[in-house]
Amino acid sequence: MKHNNQLRKEIEKLLGQNSIIKNDELKKLQKEYKIETDELLISFLPYAAEFAKVPISKYKVGAVVLGKSGNIYFGSNMEFEAGALSATVHAEQSAVNNAWLNGETGINKIAVTAAPCGYCRQFLNELTTAKQLHVLLKDKNLEAAKVFKLTELLPEAFGPRDLEIEGGLMKVENHKLKIENINDELINAALEAANKSYAPYSKNYSGVSIQLSDGTIFSGRYSENAAYNPSLLPFQSALAFMNMNTKKGSNNKIVDAVLVEAVSNISQKDAAGTLLNSISKTKLRYYKIKN
User: Fold this and answer.
1) Which of 173, 172, 168, 166 is closest to 262 using CA atoms?
2) CA 286 to the chain's CA centroid
3) Which H or E element spans position 206?
4) Domain chopping of the chain, boundaries
5) Does 17-163 match 185-289 in CATH topology?
6) What is the pLDDT of residue 1?
7) Can you tell me the distance from the alpha carbon of 154 to that of 278, in angstroms, rounded to the nearest whole number?
8) pLDDT in the model for residue 202
9) Are strands 107-112 and 62-67 parallel, antiparallel or unpaired?
10) How far apart are CA 12 and CA 1, in angstroms?
C-alpha cells in the first residue's frame, strides 16, 4: 500500500493525541482509504518507530498491536544510556505493555518493523492469546505484510502451561494488596498497578508509579515470563508507558517514584533503584506488603 499525503496527515493527527488509535477511528480510515487491517498495521510502523529512544544502538524498532477490543496500540524500543543493556525494553514488549495498561485482555495481531528476536517470541508466548496470535512483518517497500502465527516462529515452545499456569499475561488480575491509612496519590497508583500485575511464578506482585515535573503520573506493572529472563519489570513498564504517552520534545523530569511490592522470595527494589539512578537523581520510595 502506498502512502498518500492525506493519510499521513490523518495518522499524524491521531498520534498527536496519544499512541492509541481507537477502533472507530481505525474503521473510519479503512473505509475512507479502502485499506485492509493488515495493510494499515504495516503502514503505522514508521510512526511507531519514531517513539524509539535508542542512544546506544541508534536502531529504531516499531511495533503495533491490534487489541481484542479492536483498538490499535503503538510501541517502540527504549534504551538507557547509563544503564545495563539488559534494562532495554523491546518494541514488542512496549506495544503489549501499552495495550495491557490501557485495559486490553489480549491481542490478536502484532506488526513489527523487523522479525521478533527470540527473547520477544518468548515474551509473546506468555500472552493469553499466544496460540491465536498473528505476527505481521513488513516487506522492504511497505506494500504488503508477511503473516505468521506465533506458533510458527516459536516451535516446540516452553510456556506457562508447562508450569501448570492457566490464563496468561493480560488476564485480569486483582491480588487485593492493601496499605492502610495512606493518602498519597503516587503510592496508591503504584499499589493499584501491583494489584493488576502478573507474577504467577514468584508471587512478587509489584507496581511502580513515577511523577513528572508537570504533575503527570505514569504507572507500570510487573509481567513475569515462564522463561524468567523475558519478564518485564515494573519500572521498565512504567518508563515504556511514559515514553509512548508523552508528547515528543517534552522536557519533563522524573521528580518522584514509588515501588510497591508483595513480600516474596524475590524483590524489584534493587533493579528499580538502579534503573532510576541511571536516569534521575530522584530517590525511590519503597513499600513492601505482606500478601
Assistant:
1) 173
2) 23
3) strand 206-212
4) 17-163, 185-289
5) yes
6) 46
7) 34
8) 97
9) antiparallel
10) 17
Among 32, 50, 92, 173, the one annotated catalytic: 92
Question: Can you tell me the distance from the alpha carbon of 124 to that of 117, in angstroms, rounded to the nearest whole number?
Answer: 11
* Alpha-carbon gap, residue 238 to 261, rounded angstroms: 14
Distance CA 172, CA 221 (A): 12
Per-residue confidence (pLDDT) for residue 86, from 0 to 100 = 94
What is the predicted pLDDT for the residue at 226? 97
Residue pointed to by grid coordinates 541511571: 278
Query: What topology is assigned to 17-163 in CATH?
Result: Cytidine Deaminase; domain 2 (3.40.140)
Q: Is the torsion defined by CA of 51, 57, 59, 64 positive or negative?
A: negative
Say how far apart CA 92 and CA 158 lie, in whole Å. 19
CA atoms of 111 and 37, how far apart (whole Å): 11
Distance separating alpha carbons of residues 171 and 105, to the nearest angstrom = 5
How long is the chain?
A: 291
CA pair distance 235, 286, nearest whole angstrom: 12
Contact 175, 206 (CB under 8 A): no
156 assigned to active site: no
Q: How far apart are CA 2 and CA 104, in angstroms?
A: 30
Q: Which residues of the chain have pLDDT under 50?
A: 1-2
Question: Which superfamily is assigned to 185-289 in CATH?
Answer: Cytidine Deaminase, domain 2 (3.40.140.10)
Residue among 75, 65, 61 nearest 37 (CA): 65
Question: In this structure, are strands 134-138 and 20-21 parallel, antiparallel, or unpaired?
Answer: unpaired
